UniProtKB/TrEMBL annotation, chain A:
Keywords: Amino-acid transport, Cell inner membrane, Cell membrane, Membrane, Transmembrane, Transmembrane helix, Transport. This is Amino acid/amide ABC transporter membrane protein 1, HAAT family. Belongs to the binding-protein-dependent transport system permease family. LivHM subfamily. One of its GO terms (biological process) is D-alanine transmembrane transport. CDD domains: TM_PBP1_LivH_like (cd06582). It comes from the Bacteria. The chain crosses the membrane at residues 22-41, 48-65, 77-103, 115-135, 155-178, 211-230, 236-256, 289-308. GO terms for molecular function: L-isoleucine transmembrane transporter activity; L-leucine transmembrane transporter activity; L-phenylalanine transmembrane transporter activity; L-valine transmembrane transporter activity. GO terms for cellular component: plasma membrane. InterPro entries: ABC_transp_permease, BCAA_transport_permease. It is found in: Cell membrane. It is a multi-pass membrane protein.
Automatic annotation (TrEMBL), chain B:
Coiled coil: none annotated. It is found in: Cell membrane. It is a multi-pass membrane protein. InterPro entries: ABC_transp_permease (IPR001851), LivM-like (IPR043428). The keyword Cell inner membrane does not apply. It comes from the Bacteria. It comes from Micromonospora humi. Keywords: Cell membrane, Membrane, Transmembrane, Transmembrane helix. One of its GO terms (cellular component) is plasma membrane. This is Amino acid/amide ABC transporter membrane protein 2, HAAT family (TC 3.A.1.4.-).
Length: 316, 379
């Protein structure tokens, strides 16, 4: 136990934890949306994230940028970020669509038991992850350092850099947009209706298949943005990182209360911070251990999560 | 067994023909006289005992693996079969989704390693045979410890907690100084036993004795599990799987029996882990990747969960197929590199076309058929 390490770096551990937590939160949204509507752990969602992360890196490669290139000028940096974000979001949403069409819809048509969904999800996850692994020859792919990691300003002695600002800011904006989409738009109302009672919603004229597809697309878009932010922050990407990140994002979703959008945000940020404190306290190799310990303990005492499960019960 | 008539709008496809062919074979097996079944079973067992001998398997055409020592592969396959039989109790009979089954295997292997290896900090240096029951007991205890809080939760949460548990075991193995991470434990003793001329029966080079040992234990475990499933315990498990609330109302202590299923499954994994450590002589953190848990679960579902024969076939086939890809080149690409890609695709296709598995449990197959006919609104 290294309490000195924890307290002397408390501020920095918090900010980096919040940054990592913002990425967890964005991925957690995908789990929470799909779970809220289908009562299904979309195990393949980690690969939706990975697809976006690879798409962003390959977009930059397409512009002739690799891990060594330096880009100057705010305008061109914003341009590259924006283009990569759009491509990543499309790639992720596309992957999510393919997964729903190929792996889940045929099972729904056959009214398969929940176990069957989980197995196809695992199968799809392994297949996609391995496809990326084979394509990249299992080598890490480098991303250009677009955003500087030099401290921008200090808050109470804690340096804040632009990557952290960008990550947390982008995550909050995406969250807000999704929240508005679910709570204000016509499709959002359909999503909430299907989450409450799928059969009744279908009888009221909601196109269930379309709504489910929209849920996958919305979750995929969030995961795509998360992929981009991951690239900007870590600057290197291996095909296999999705699995652990996906598991943690799901933990975050459960932590906040699965099916609850705001819960995913809180759960993600909290998980990021908690695992960072644990790494300060016990050493960084125990970081992942702490994340799962949180999950196990949480499920023992409050299995519905901090905010409760509530996509269906959200303001109708 | 009567053959069911398909709805008229479905044409007879190749898949259906295969399905009917299999049903015919199963039908014949169930109607054969008892002695015929025993003779066939004995022949199968003798075949598997003879399989690791080179004098025998060299005549078997494409079955031996080109890229790896076939006897070693058989040992790996037999360990997977044992694990599949154990997981089948948890997933197949009690219907509990355990995604971290390999974690118990790790507990078994590490117990043996810590208590027997000279490189362990404890320096107990106990013989292998003495440690095996301890390993089984410890894994059982860890199963109870993990099961007590989580078995009250819904099924998919259980899946997640078990997955987290396996990952925690792996991270502990990688990071803690007590479990030695990558450096691992060496010189774990082999099982005892000598030939007449004094050479040890369980040596370093020859994997055959280990395979025979595991095969024998598989047979014993299968007999035990089979008897268990035909008893009050087995009926309780199946009632829990079919409808937990109904079972509870009928007076089945569901939590107790779920815990029993979880613990007995864990014990079998512990046994497998102990065997693995005794054969391998060396245990480090790289042996326990999370993918293994998923492979075993997939193997059980693939073979037909709820059916012991299905689990054996599934475990054997999946472990064997993964090894079989080694050393094959097709159009200039190494197929072994693609093994998990195929594995994932097979899982998806399998679940869409045959969710009940290759050799399903009859009751489960009927249940799947039933569900298909239920009307769903809006689809």
């Amino acid at each position: 136990m290294n309490f000195d390490g924890l307290f002397s770096n408390f501020g920095e551990l918090t900010t980096t934890g919040l940054t990592q937590g913002a990425i967890y939160a964005l991925v957690a949204l995908g789990y929470t949306l799909v779970y809220g509507v289908l009562r299904l752990i979309n195990f393949a969602h980690s690969e939706v994230f990975i697809a976006g992360a690879f798409a962003a890196i390959w977009t930059w490669n397409g512009f002739g940028l690799d891990q060594n290139s330096q880009v100057s000028g705010v305008g061109s940096i914003l341009f590259y970020l924006l283009v990569a974000m759009i491509v990543a979001a499309i790639a992720s949403a596309g992957t999510a669509t393919v997964i729903e069409r190929v792996a889940y819809r045929p099972l729904r048509k056959r009214n398969a038991p929940p176990l069957a969904f989980l197995i196809t999800a695992i199968g799809a996850s392994i297949a996609i992850s391995e496809a990326f692994g084979v394509y990249t020859r299992r080598l890490p792919q480098g991303a250009p350092s677009l955003v500087s990691s030099k401290p921008l300003f200090h808050v109470a002695g804690v340096p804040i850099d632009s990557i952290q600002l960008l990550t947390i800011g982008a995550a909050l904006v995406m969250m807000f947009a999704l929240d508005q989409f679910i709570n204000r738009s016509r499709t959002g109302r359909g999503i909430r209706a299907v989450a409450q009672d799928a059969n009744t919603a279908a009888l009221m004229g909601v196109n269930k298949d379309r709504i489910i597809l929209m849920v996958f697309i919305a979750g995929g878009t969030m995961a795509g943005v998360a992929g981009l932010l991951y690239d900007v922050r870590i600057q290197t990407l291996t095909y296999s990182v999705g699995f652990l990140l996906g598991l943690k994002a799901f933990t975050a979703a459960v932590l906040g209360g699965i099916g609850n959008l705001r819960g995913a945000l809180i759960g993600g940020l909290l998980l990021g911070v908690v695992e960072n404190y644990a790494s300060g306290l016990f050493g960084s190799q125990w970081k992942d251990f702490a994340a799962f310990a949180v999950l196990v303990v949480l499920l023992m005492f409050r299995p519905t999560g901090l905010l409760g499960e509530s996509l269906g019960r959200a303001r109708a | 067994m009567t053959t069911t008539i398909d709805p008229p709008e479905r044409r007879e496809t190749a898949v259906d023909k295969l399905r009917n062919g299999r049903a015919a074979v199963a039908d014949r097996w169930h109607h054969a006289p008892r002695w015929v079944r025993w003779v066939l079973l004995a022949a199968v067992i003798v075949f598997f005992y003879a399989l690791p001998n080179k004098e025998f398997y060299q005549y078997l055409g494409p079955i031996p693996t080109p890229g790896a020592n076939f006897t070693q592969v058989l040992f790996t396959v037999s360990i997977y079969v044992l694990l599949a039989v154990g997981l089948n109790i948890v997933v197949g009979f009690a219907g509990l989704l355990d995604l971290g089954y390999f974690g118990f295997f790790a507990v078994g292997a590490y117990t043996v390693a810590v208590l027997t290896s000279p490189s362990s900090n404890l320096k107990t240096l106990w013989p292998w045979l003495l440690v095996v029951p301890i390993a089984i007991a410890l894994t059982m205890v860890s199963g109870v410890m993990l099961g007590t809080p989580t078995l009250r939760l819904r099924g998919d949460y259980l899946a997640l907690v078990t997955l987290g548990f396996a990952e925690m075991i792996r991270i502990a193995a990688v990071s803690s100084t007590f479990l030695k991470g990558q450096r691992g434990f060496s010189e774990i003793p082999h099982p005892p036993g000598k030939y007449a001329d004094g050479r040890p029966f369980f040596g370093v080079l020859d994997a055959r004795p280990y395979y025979w040992l595991v095969l024998t234990l598989i047979i014993l475990v299968v007999i035990g599990v089979r008897n268990l499933t035909h008893s009050r315990v087995g009926r309780a498990w199946i009632s829990i799987r079919e409808d937990e609330d109904a079972a509870q109302l009928m007076g089945v202590p569901t939590f107790k029996f779920k815990l029993w299923a979880f613990a007995s499954g864990a014990a079998i994994a512990g046994l497998a882990g102990a065997l693995f450590a005794g054969k391998q002589n060396f245990v480090n953190s790289q042996n326990f990747e999370l993918l293994n848990s998923i492979i075993i679960l997939a193997a059980v579902i693939f073979g037909g969960s709820g059916n012991i024969v299905g689990a054996i076939v599934g475990g054997g086939l999946v472990a064997y197929m993964i090894e079989r890809f080694r050393g094959i080149e097709l159009f200039g690409i190494e197929l072994y590199e693609y093994r998990f890609l195929f594995f994932g695709l097979v899982l998806v296709i399998m679940m869409i076309f045959r969710p009940q598995g290759l050799i399903p449990n009859r009751r489960r197959a009927a249940e799947f058929k039933d569900r298909r006919k239920e009307v769903i609104v809006g689809e």
